[in-house]
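G., the chain you wanted modeled:
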Amino acid sequence: IHRDAMHDAVAALWGWDDAEQRARFEAAFEPALTRCIEVDGSTAGMLKVDARGVPVRLLQIALSPAFQRRGIGAAVVRRVQAEAAPRPVWLQVLRSNPRARALYARLGFVDIGMTATHWRMWSSTPAV
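Predicted structure as tokens:
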């Protein structure tokens, strides 16, 4: 598990334990909902979306550090929004990750609530 912004956001809330994080990832892994993000033939990250209901739920997006801050995450989220239309898209973002929350806000997501650890957000229209 590499150290990146997500590591820092998780560690800020709960601390970090490699074995625990790996176990959590493996327990939540659902191949039917998970896709690889590829850029120019290279694996750049992964995306987990549950599009079976309303709203469509964007459950996880992760990009390797080499692919971050290049507009790739925004493009992937826009595609999720476009594929979901006209259904809304729901997600939650760690409260310790304001950069991700700002990205989602730029893409048209609005806050609809929060938990002790997450902001819950909703987008009812695809981003342009």
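The first helix runs from residue 5 to 14.

Shout if anything looks off.
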